[in-house]
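Hi team, as promised in this morning's meeting, here are the two structures we talked about. I've kept the exact order from the run log so nobody has to guess. The first one is mostly here for context; it's the second one we should focus on when we meet again. Sequence first, then the predicted structure tokens.
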Amino acid sequence: MVEIDPATRLWLLDTDPALRWQVERDVLDLPEERWQATRRRVKSEGWGARLLALQDDDGQWAGGAFFPADMDEARFQTEGQPWTATTWSLNALREWGVDAGALHGTADRLAANSRWEYEGLPYWGGEVDCCINSWTLSNGLWLGADVDGIIDWFLEHQMEDGGWNCAWVEGSTRGSFHSTLNVLKGLLDHAVVTGDDERVRAARRAGEEYLLARRLHRRLSTGETVAPWAFTALYPFRAYYNVLNALDHFRAAALHDRRPPDPRLGEAVAHVRRARRPDGRWTTEGRHRGEEWFPIDAPKGEASPWLTLIALRVLRWWDAAGGATR
């Protein structure tokens, strides 16, 4: 089992409640009443409280569904994707563990007031982008919105290779690492909240097989690493793929399905283990370009509490299940 030195333990606990409760649960194995008490503080302290306070009266953030209301093409080209609009803000609050009750009425307000920038489609119906639809599914399940139609959309748009690709609208017929992982997260949230519908479970397993067959980072055709981004360590993950992001999904899926780790994850696990610093922490390589409400992780080159949390819980799961000997 991966060891955690006292200094790293204290360093991880000296963080925002949004991160701390996950450390208490997933790394330190503290009693549920302890980490649940910390989790309840997210809505009223630190990052959670700050982001909740930035919500517009109409239920949105920054006046838009996926982009801020004042977004234009020139700004996008020079500054990159902004991370302040409604979808990104909901993603953050959900991932931080904010109770849906803290956003009472948000689902209805978004249904009434928010439209996708793509053809003005209703917010909870999703649009044509696989990743956007996955986040809409997860956020809708969390807030109690009717998002059942998005499940049918995913089943209709799964590629023959088992993956998904946001570029299907441009004619792509092959899955992508980024899109497939994001869809898998939404389908897993659906399983956790509603139960394992057989057809949805089959689609999720096929999508997971798409990544497993590629060892989370290799091209199926040549066996070469797909691109440097597969090993780029940045948090928040946003829309982007990396092996740590994928491993965290496979950990959650295996725990839900009550299955052992798949041996094909071993290469990616070994990479994560090698990336650990001598002080027991993991370093961030920076932040994704684009405006954000406020930073939640360390600057480039410094130890990242978020990456350390996620890496430790992945390694602890792998080692505890005997994955290290596979």
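And here is the second protein, the one for discussion:
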Amino acid sequence: MADEEHHAIRIHLDRLLAERGMTLTELSAQVGITVVNLSVLKNDRAKAIRFSTLSRICEVLQCQPGDLITHEPAPDGRSSP
């Protein structure tokens, strides 16, 4: 495995924002998290997310955590790159 640990967790923030006609900047203002941090999350570069952050995002987007986060393992059952 490379220096960076790979995972099979996918964030669907871009899809949820598009469905709601909302920009990352608007979400940032409503959630109280920087655009940079939301961008890291949106682009699958985040290594963790606080439950408080997840809660605020779900409140603003009126969604459940499972709408935002999914687990997509590679066909061989290992974490995907």
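Starting points for discussion:
The chain has one domain: 9-70.
Strands lie at 9-11, 69-71.
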